[in-house]
Automatic annotation (TrEMBL):
Database matches in InterPro entries: ACKR4, CCR1-9-like, Chemokine_rcpt, GPCR_Rhodpsn, GPCR_Rhodpsn_7TM
Name of the molecule in the record: Atypical chemokine receptor 4
Transmembrane segments annotated in the record for this chain: 42-67, 79-99, 119-141, 153-174, 202-227, 239-256, 291-310
Keyword match Iron: no
CDD domains per record: 7tmA_ACKR4_CCR11
SUPFAM superfamilies: Family A G protein-coupled receptor-like (SSF81321)
Keywords: Cell membrane, G-protein coupled receptor, Glycoprotein, Membrane, Receptor, Transducer, Transmembrane, Transmembrane helix
Compartments where found: Cell membrane
Family: Belongs to the G-protein coupled receptor 1 family.
GO biological processes: calcium-mediated signaling; cell chemotaxis; immune response; positive regulation of cytosolic calcium ion concentration
Membrane topology: Multi-pass membrane protein
Pfam families: 7tm_1 (PF00001)
């Protein structure tokens, strides 16, 4: 998890810090980051608690509806279901990181590896499923949507997304460990450390932000252009949804990836040699990554609850539950088999 990767870099030395004369006047001043850790102890648990509660509630509703109630699914439904699962698993790692911010990592090396890998898998897969949703929305607008339901290619795409995310988490499984300061961080062999850390950072930026952003931008731009050319349709609501989705993605993800890119450049060229600048970078990565995580809480609102068909489906489930409650309360007057079957709902659309 990137929130912890800078905490081990508390000391900075000049290039000649290992000369044989041991001239201690050549050493840099020790960079003590106690205020950064104090900020993390307050900010991260509070933010993670809000994200965990809100995200757990919204994504749980999505999973429950799609998994247990909505039987006729489209490709977009499958992608949204996988997105909600990824968001839930990601949010479930937050309590561990909240405790880590206050007390350090107390769960051992194996849990450090597993939790870090799980975080990466679900963060990256969530971004990829956003791209899949945008592609499927484009095809739904560009041509008549298929009525054959979910096909084999859809499941293959989901499998590929999860596989790519798991492969990207392998470095966390291999190199993450608990250091002497009880921090769960990646520790690379000296001969490959710089190259490996920078490569992982750049790969995460490309797969977790650049590729999804380009796909979403192109697809939603083409959708907006087609909607503007279509006569006799209500365009304003659809265009507002498209604009909201893109803006939220940019606002939540762009700052975090800018900071990650700067980190990768610093790993290669050692640009940060000032203690105050290092502290500001630590705080920046904590704040921007927390904002990026909050996208997991907004996904149900952006991709599900803004859709008319899904809101109608929730109302039907609520009415069905209310009818069941009334039957239980009036069991002598209303038989249990009097409830008629519910009609299938249409696919979630823009």
């Amino acid at each position: 998890m990137a929130l912890e990767q800078n905490h081990s870099a508390d000391y900075y030395y000049e290039e000649n810090d290992l000369n044989s004369t041991h001239d201690y006047s050549q050493y840099e001043v020790i960079c003590i980051k106690e205020e950064v850790r104090n900020f993390a102890k307050v900010f991260l648990p509070a933010f993670f608690a809000v994200a965990f509660i809100t995200g757990l509630a919204g994504n749980s509703v999505v999973v429950a509806i799609y998994a247990y109630y909505k039987k006729q699914r489209t490709k977009t439904d499958v992608y949204i279901l996988n997105l909600a699962v990824a968001d839930l698993l990601l949010l479930c790692t937050l309590p561990f990181w909240a405790v880590n911010a206050v007390h350090g990592w107390v769960l051992g090396k194996m849990m450090c590896k597993v939790t870090s890998a799980l975080y990466t898998v679900n963060f990256v897969s969530g971004m990829q499923f956003l791209a899949c949703i945008s592609i499927d929305r484009y095809w739904a607008v560009a041509k008549a949507p298929s009525q054959t339901g979910v096909g084999k290619p859809c499941w293959i795409i989901c499998f590929c997304v999860w596989t790519a995310a798991v492969l990207l988490s392998v470095p966390q499984l291999v190199f993450n460990t608990v250091n002497d300061n009880s921090r769960c961080i990646p520790i690379f062999p000296h001969h490959i450390g710089t190259f490996m850390k920078a490569s992982i950072q750049m790969l995460e930026i490309c797969i977790g932000f650049v590729a999804p952003f380009l796909i979403m931008g192109v697809c939603y731009f083409l959708i907006a252009r087609m909607l503007l050319k279509m006569p006799n349709i209500k365009k304003s609501q659809a265009l507002k949804v498209l604009l909201t989705v893109v803006l939220v993605f940019i606002v939540t993800q762009l700052p975090y990836n800018i900071v990650k890119f700067w980190q990768a450049i610093d790993i290669i060229y050692s640009l940060i040699t000032d203690c105050d600048m290092s502290k500001r970078m630590d705080v920046a990565i904590q704040v921007t990554e927390s904002i990026a995580l909050f996208h997991s809480c907004l996904n149900p609102l952006l991709y599900v609850f803004m859709g008319t068909s899904f809101k109608n489906y929730i109302m039907r489930v609520a009415k069905k539950y209310g009818s069941w409650r009334r039957q239980r309360q009036n069991v002598e007057e209303i038989p249990f088999d009097s409830e008629g079957p519910t009609e299938p709902t249409s696919s979630f659309t823009i």
